[in-house]
Amino acid sequence: MTKTNNVYIETYGCQMNVADSELVLGILKNKGFSVTETADNADVILLNTCSIRDNAEQRIHGRLGNLKKIKEKKPSTVIGVLGCMAERLRISLIEEKKMVDLVVGPDEYRRIPEFIDQAFSGEKGIGVKLSRTETYDDIIPYREEGLSAWISVMRGCDKFCTFCVVPFTRGRERSRNFDSIIDEIKILSERGFREVTLLGQNVNSYNDNGRDFADLLAASAAVDRKIRVRFTTSHPQDLSDKLLYTIAENPNLCNYIHLPVQSGSDRILKLMNRTYTIEHYLNLIDKARKIIPGVSFSTDIIAGFPTETYEDHLTTLDVMQKVKYDGAYMFKYSAREGTKAYKMGDDVSEEAKTKRLNEIIDLQQSISFEVNQTLLNTEEVVLVEGNSKKSDEFLAGRTDSNKVVIFPKNEKVKVGDYVKVRINKATSATLFADFLSIEIPYEKDIAKTA
Ligand code: 5AD
Ligand code: SF4
User: Fold this and answer.
1) Which domains does the chain have, with CATH numbers?
2) What global pTM score does this model have?
3) Would the N or C end of the chain have less CB density within 10 A of its end CB?
4) Which residues line ligand 1 (CB under 6 A)?
């Protein structure tokens, strides 16, 4: 019998990469590889990498330094770099890091088994062509048992925000086949999954032969009403009324929209090529709140984009105050070679970026605290995910709006149940609650569709 090879994969960056790692493992399992959880006993070590900011890349350079030691101990170990950094740095990764055997970008994952074979016989492999059509529709991703799954419904991005490397590392936008996505959700439903998140750089431009993202969400939600459906990311220019009504009409479509604003200044938004104004953005938030009562928002914000003044920065704080986001991902601007913004110069000093970012983080923390206080004494339906991180005597789960809730353990409650709780305490990051009852969620709707 030939020996099966063990593969270990480590994932950096966004959820898109998490989904891609599952695809890669799906491809390798089909070729007879087995999956291992540690680098030490692996025959093949793959890093699925991120290039979005310089610090993401620096972390991976550091990790490659550690892996060098494993390779020295066991020189037959194959080491591969996948993902955005592979696409961006290409052959230079192999030239500079001698222990790297393969470099494979996001559209060439089907070739990984072939590259690994070559690497076992001492050859280096590189596959970094981008494709206009590859969507890996026929690949069944390898997924551990669990409650939540990430499903990528489109690849690439055509928006060309001037700060972003993604259009260069992940190529042109393309949508996956509608029916293959629905089939994937059916399989997850049969396996007992309770939550799926549909992923794309800009899901609102999803289109498969005239079926748009709202159609996809409605069909996804109808597969199994016990499954919560989430999605990310929406671009403020493309969020349609149809989509908002679809969320409002389907109880298991979560009332939560990640809508990156990036900056509060129209001048900066223009330089970023974001193609909307703050007026448009705020109107959209108002409209969504009318159509979907109680909807939550999160955002992405960049501090210190080229030419940003302190006054521009204050407009960002102002928008945060107006919207009162439930959560925010907040970053210092990082100049990325090859992007349009790179040519604008990186003229905001590191100190100013740090100061502005800290102000943004502090403000968001106080807003999150304030928003969470309004939930005191309200009832929430929580999907139970497991023990609380801090104590085995408590369970943790999430609300529809993606907030973590901690409540005392109860014999009747299992992981994967939906429970009704009453919130009794709230910090900026966590809600604490009393258990009320086990819920059959979306019951009315199940009756309607049965
Ligand atoms: N510098 C800082 N943040 C960035 N993002 C994307 N590119 C950069 C960059 N060059 C942020 C944006 C985006 C999120 C995924 O990452 O806010 O929405
Ligand atoms: Fe994801 Fe963007 Fe990072 Fe690539 S560069 S892994 S698309 S966040």
Assistant:
1) 6-127 (3.40.50.12160), 143-254 (3.30.750.210), 263-374 (3.30.750.200), 379-449 (2.40.50.140)
2) 0.95
3) N
4) 52-53, 163-164, 260, 262, 300, 302, 331, 333-334, 336
